[in-house]
Amino acid sequence: MNEIKVGAIFEKEITVTENLLAVSVGSGDVSVFATPMMLSLMEEVSAKCLAKFLDEGMTSVGTSITSSHVAATPVGMKVKASAEITSFEGRKVSFSITASDEKGIIGEGTHDRFIVDREKFNQKALAKLS
Question: Any residues with CB less than 8 A from the CB of 95 and at least 6 apart, and which?
Fold first, then answer.
């Protein structure tokens, strides 16, 4: 594994579409960017930020996320999510996460991920079926 660098950042920008709205995903009845979709985007950028440091066969899984969602974003606006590694201890890596639309911050928080062996993790999950 490459040395994990505190301060490493990964960002991704998307355009809000109908399928990302609260009314479409069941998290509300308004036509704005859904909180679960914002959290998903924040988790995605965190995973991708960490992935570049991991050896083949390793991955990371989210274990906690805390976030505000303070502003509504309508269809057609762009949203950019950013994750920055703030610390790591053993297999636990912590991130500062933010999401902004074209008018400013819409959400921010923290996220923790644990580094795992992908195959062992999948096998353990599948063992629940037996």
Answer: 46, 49, 83, 84, 85, 86, 110, 111, 112, 113
pTM metric for this prediction: 0.95
pLDDT in tens, 64-117: 999 999 999 999 999 999 999 999 999 999 999 999 999 999 999 999 999 999
Residues catalogued as catalytic: 35, 43, 69
67, 46 in Cβ contact below 8 A? Answer: no
